[in-house]
Structure formats: structure tokens, C-alpha cells
Backbone:
DNA sequence: GCGACAG
DNA sequence: ATCTTGTCGC
């Protein structure tokens, strides 16, 4: 039982990240934007009942039509700690992904990949554990800095860490709307990650993959609570 | 030492 | 993440 999926504490979780980080692949371009399948994943919480619901929504990358959906419900296994988000979200997300019959293709995560204090955010962790190509699209820049991209859709600017290294990009997906923060997870180049993000967000700030997964996991959580998942044995 | 900090 | 009314606008 090496590299346990549920670490006992924060120190162990960081040690797991440091160990798994060596397996991240950064020299593959990944699937060409607009081809094959793209899968969005997201989770919703009910802290009072200690429940977490995850959703995986598979889209046709060319048309953005929904190909397949899956959900999973479980118990929260780890608290929210900045930098350790994967340990909170991944167990349930993996359960949802495993119940898909389609090959997920490129996985789009709600959070970061390489833009992470130890270069091993949620998207990199998911990619290494599953072997799938993965990217992270986050709504906030976390501790990283960036210059405002141009005002129009498609404008980008580097997302920089404290040493001035580019760990991702701020990508303007809609005219005059706050950018999203894209970083590589596993087996995808940063250029392709940004291109995928733009294609996935033709009409809204966030990628359709993320929007669909967000709506689905919220619904799954409501239904789980309604069915009494938080109650007795 | 304290605060900030993806979701 | 989540708690939450009305309101502005296409």
C-alpha cells in the first residue's frame, strides 16, 4: 500500500505530492483542440452532513454536445487546505470518472495543475493517478501574479510565481470579463491548454465542461440529501 | 509569529 | 465551497 489515497494529515499529504510530482509528464502536446472528447469534473459539498458529490460530464470537443454524464457521492475525507485541494476532491471525482463507459479524453479540472506551491495541483494529481491528459482552469489567481490581458476574448498574459517563472496563463474568454487562470496538469502543453479553454468557452467566462459539471454535481448533491444519504446507517 | 491562500 | 433578494439586461 504505497502512496495512500487518504493521507492521515497535512504533512503526509505534502509528502505524497512530492513523491507523485516526479510522474508528471510535461513534454507532450496533448490532444489537438476541437477533436475527440473533453470531460469536465467538479464537486459540491454539504459540510453539515459531511457529504461530497462529484460529477463528470463528457463533451464532444467539436460540438460541445454532451456525450455522457456520471456522478458519485461520498463522505468528505479531507479538510480544505490551500495547496492540498486534491485530497479533498479527488476520491469522489475518481469514482465518477471510473463509472463512465466513454474514454474521458482530456479532463478539465476546476482549479490548478502546475500553478501550485509544489507544482502539483489538482489537475496534475488527477492526471498522474489516471494517466489521462488534464488541465486546470481556475477562477482565481491564488498567490500568483499576472498583468491584465488585453480586453478582448483570446487575449492572454503569463501567470507568474514568486521567482518570475510562468506557471500558467490568464486567459480572457469573453470581451471585458475577468480572465480565467489556466495551467497544465499532465500530458498537455500550455499553448494547447489555453486553446482548449478558449474553444470550450464560446459564450461564457467558464468552459462549458466546467459549467455542465458544476450544475450536475449540485443536482447530485441535492438528490443525495433528499434521498437521506446524510442520515442514519 | 501572522496573514494570505485553488475549492 | 457556501450562506442569499432583488435587480439589471439580453
Residues:
Amino acid at each position: 500500500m504505497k502512496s495512500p489515497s487518504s493521507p492521515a494529515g497535512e504533512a503526509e499529504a505534502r509528502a505524497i505530492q512530492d513523491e507523485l510530482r516526479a510522474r508528471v509528464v510535461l513534454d507532450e502536446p496533448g490532444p489537438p483542440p476541437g477533436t475527440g472528447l473533453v470531460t469536465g469534473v467538479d464537486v459540491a459539498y454539504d459540510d453539515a452532513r459531511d457529504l461530497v458529490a462529484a460529477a463528470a460530464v463528457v463533451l464532444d470537443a467539436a460540438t460541445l454536445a454532451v456525450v455522457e454524464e456520471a456522478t458519485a457521492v461520498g463522505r468528505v475525507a479531507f479538510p480544505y487546505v490551500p495547496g492540498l485541494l486534491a485530497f479533498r476532491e479527488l476520491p469522489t471525482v475518481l469514482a465518477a470518472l471510473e463509472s463512465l463507459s466513454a474514454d474521458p479524453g482530456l479532463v478539465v479540472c476546476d482549479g490548478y495543475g502546475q500553478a501550485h506551491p509544489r507544482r502539483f495541483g489538482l489537475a496534475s494529481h488527477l492526471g498522474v493517478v489516471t494517466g489521462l491528459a488534464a488541465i486546470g482552469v481556475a477562477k482565481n489567481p491564488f498567490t500568483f501574479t499576472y498583468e491584465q490581458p488585453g480586453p478582448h476574448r483570446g487575449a492572454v498574459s503569463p501567470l507568474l510565481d514568486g521567482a518570475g517563472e510562468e506557471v500558467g496563463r490568464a486567459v480572457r474568454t469573453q470581451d471585458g470579463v475577468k480572465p480565467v487562470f489556466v495551467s497544465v496538469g499532465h500530458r498537455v502543453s500550455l499553448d494547447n491548454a489555453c486553446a482548449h479553454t478558449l474553444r470550450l468557452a464560446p459564450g461564457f467566462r467558464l468552459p462549458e465542461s466546467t459549467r455542465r459539471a458544476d450544475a450536475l454535481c449540485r443536482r447530485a448533491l441535492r438528490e443525495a440529501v433528499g434521498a437521506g444519504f446524510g442520515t442514519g446507517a
Observations:
- The mean pLDDT of chain A is 94.
- Residues 42-43, 45, 80-83, 85, 88-89, 109-112, 115-117, 121-122, 136, 138-143, 181 of chain A lie near DNA strand B (CB under 10 Å from a C1').
- DSSP finds five helices and nine strands in chain A.
